[in-house]
């Protein structure tokens, strides 16, 4: 994995839903720096922020959410905000003006003369599409009944009497632009994100506690002794009892539609007929424990005969129908509070599929998929199923663990090996991925797609993969992870997210920043022995430090330290032609100390727009911030302090 590879890995249609829109730079509205008052842009031509893709697709066609578009003095593209409050919240963040410059012009949606009403959810529904009006002359209704999928929203009007009429009908107060600018629009900080991790763990513990009692259900029937088949035992067992399956191999396909526990006693194998799902669960409060499952069918697409109805009006109904009914060792449909524990599954398709099965718990499950990662579908595949998956092992197939519209899921302490994608999230928010070990993935270890919100990715370890972490969405918390010996350690496609305490070591590229908006907070991370520590696409200056808190960059420590030896005495830019070679080229340390370069670096590290497409750390640390994590890799001895001494205590 240490060779520089730029191969493009294409995902099959099974991994993509709907139309993927790729916004090329040529399609964006470029600000004319010589124009004092530019005209409004088409919103589709802006760089958008503030609405998840799932929420956007889920809106009725007649909904027109409030929008703002901002022309910045130091950013070449127009930024489009869903919600005036989204812009105001971003504007109040530290470093916002340093990276974007100041707003030259702000336009907001104009609901005057549009016949505006609110839907049952509070979404604005005008009779005609709103135009644009200058924010400085507009009037805003704050704290009304109006909503967006993210919550309360500010509703703008060009005419005061229209704003007052709306407030009379739907509540709220009318404010001018200056008054709105003075209001506080809170956004999550790192403390809130850290607390959210603890909340996720508590949710997982509560779900596990709710199903632990399944193991204590009294036995009612012994299959094979009191009945000829396991299915007969299931059909005869009273609710809230246990069906015991003695050791042996049973050639059956099963359906469980009532709250019972199916338990193997000794070594038990349920072998299907290689055609379809082996165990189908359609009832709530079902437990399946201590079994092995084989003989799964190989259908990985085109499922039609589902045991549940899919709402044909949903925007992704075709996708759900196509994949939710494919073959699996265990397929659960509408099976809330399911427990799958101590189960081994061998499958050419999927191991466990959960559809519309909330509060499911999958523990100590082993799934072995096809050896060729381009075959199969997923080890564990959850559709609209908020669940817990822990202490499980998945090997082989396209996806290890795949979550689709399964928000509030917790994945912790799993081992996922040899897939195209190890952990794959689509349209899934408020999820915790914690303490998982991922190895040898052809596309990525952890891939978060389709713009979700408030996911937490902490204490995972990804190695020997094409990409370690590929993270999209907003308000994402990425902390204390290790990405080592990958082609690319971390791909950043998020906005308003937090990256702290991560180690990126021994990768061809440590981090590649694809996000066009510089709204992420990146501090306390360690970059060691990557061929390139960081690369980035076009966009404004990204400042990866916060006050005196920065990151450790191998090579950056070659710069003389400050008085207490905690920080280098100048900014470091991993995208600078000189700085990026400090850990690779003899003589770079001497060159970077030249007075002219030091003066230029100080200027470029502080003035907006001086380094378009660049990353600057204004407070690089002299020693790694996460020595214990770094010691888990093979690269700890490559880290040196500003005093030219090794930082590792390893022998």
Question: What report would you give on this structure?
Answer:
There is one protein chain. With 651 residues, the protein is of the alpha/beta class. The chain has a domain at 31-182. Helices cover 14% and strands 32% of the residues. The strands form seven sheets. The protein has a 21-stranded parallel sheet that branches. The longest helix has 23 residues, at 190-212. The chain is globular. Mean pLDDT is 88; it is low at 1-26 and 603-611. InterPro entries: N2O_reductase_NosL (IPR008719), NosD_dom (IPR007742), Para_beta_helix_rpt-2 (IPR022441), PbH1 (IPR006626), Pectin_lyas_fold (IPR012334), Pectin_lyase_fold/virulence (IPR011050), SCF-Subunits/Alg-Epimerases (IPR051550).
């Amino acid at each position: 994995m240490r060779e520089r590879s730029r191969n493009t890995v294409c995902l099959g249609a099974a991994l993509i839903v709907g139309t993927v829109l790729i916004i090329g730079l040529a399609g964006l509205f470029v600000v004319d720096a010589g124009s004092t008052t530019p005209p409004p842009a088409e919103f589709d031509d802006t760089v958008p922020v503030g609405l998840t893709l799932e929420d956007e697709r889920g809106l009725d066609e007649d909904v027109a959410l409030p929008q703002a578009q901002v022309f910045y003095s130091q950013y070449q593209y127009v930024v489009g905000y869903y919600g005036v409050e989204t812009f105001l919240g971003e504007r109040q963040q530290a470093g916002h003006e340093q990276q974007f410059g100041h707003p030259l012009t702000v336009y907001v949606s104009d609901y005057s003369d549009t016949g505006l009403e609110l839907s049952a959810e509070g979404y604005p529904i005008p009779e005609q599409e709103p135009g644009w009006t200058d924010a400085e002359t507009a009037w805003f209704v704050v704290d009304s009944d109006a909503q967006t999928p993210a919550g309360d929203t500010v509703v703008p009007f060009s005419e005061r009497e229209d704003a007052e009429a709306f407030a009379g009908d739907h509540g709220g107060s009318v404010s001018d632009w200056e008054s709105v600018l003075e209001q506080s629009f809170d956004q999550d900080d790192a403390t809130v994100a850290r607390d959210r991790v603890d909340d996720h763990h508590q949710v997982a513990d509560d779900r596990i506690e709710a199903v632990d009692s399944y193991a204590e259900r009294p036995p009612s029937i012994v299959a094979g002794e009191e009945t000829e088949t396991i299915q007969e035992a299931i059909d005869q067992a009273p609710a809230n009892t246990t069906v015991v399956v003695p050791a042996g191999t049973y050639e059956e396909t099963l359906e469980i539609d009532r709250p019972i526990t199916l338990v193997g006693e000794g070594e038990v194998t349920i072998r299907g007929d290689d055609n379809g799902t082996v165990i189908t669960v359609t009832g709530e409060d079902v437990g399946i424990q201590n079994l092995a499952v084989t003989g799964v069918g190989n259908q990985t697409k085109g499922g039609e005969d589902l045991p549940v109805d899919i709402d044909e009006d949903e925007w992704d109904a075709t996708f759900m129908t196509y994949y939710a009914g494919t073959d699996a060792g265990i397929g659960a449909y509408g099976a809330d509070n399911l427990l799958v524990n101590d189960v081994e599954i061998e499958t050419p398709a999927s191991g466990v599929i959960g559809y519309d099965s909330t509060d499911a718990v999958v523990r100590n499950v082993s799934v072995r998929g096809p050896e060729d990662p381009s075959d199969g579908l997923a080890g564990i595949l959850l559709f609209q199923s908020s669940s817990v998956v822990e202490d499980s092992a998945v090997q082989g197939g396209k996806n290890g663990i795949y979550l689709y519209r399964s928000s509030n899921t917790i994945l912790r302490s799993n081992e996922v090996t040899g897939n195209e994608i190890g952990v794959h999230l689509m349209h899934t928010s408020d999820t915790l991925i914690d303490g998982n070990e991922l190895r040898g993935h052809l596309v990525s270890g952890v891939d978060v797609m389709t713009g979700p919100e408030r996911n937490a990715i902490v204490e995972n370890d990804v190695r020997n993969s094409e990409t370690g972490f590929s993270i999209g969405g907003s308000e994402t918390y990425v902390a204390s992870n290790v990405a080592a010996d990958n082609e690319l350690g971390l791909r950043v496609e998020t906005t308003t997210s937090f990256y702290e305490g991560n180690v990126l070591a021994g990768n061809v590229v440590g981090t590649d920043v694809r996000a066009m908006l510089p709204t992420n907070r990146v501090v306390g991370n360690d970059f060691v022995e990557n061929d390139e520590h960081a690369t980035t696409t076009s966009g404004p200056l990204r400042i990866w430090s916060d006050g005196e808190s920065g990151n450790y960059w191998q090579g950056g420590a070659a710069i003389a330290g400050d008085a207490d030896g905690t920080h280098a005495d100048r900014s470091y830019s991993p995208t600078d032609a000189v700085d990026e070679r400090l850990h690779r080229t003899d003589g770079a340390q001497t060159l970077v100390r030249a007075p002219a370069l030091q003066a230029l670096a100080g200027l470029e590290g502080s003035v907006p727009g001086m380094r378009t497409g660049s990353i600057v750390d204004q407070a690089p640390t002299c020693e790694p911030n996460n020595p214990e994590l770094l010691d888990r890799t093979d690269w700890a001895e490559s880290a040196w302090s500003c005093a030219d001494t090794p930082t590792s205590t390893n022998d």
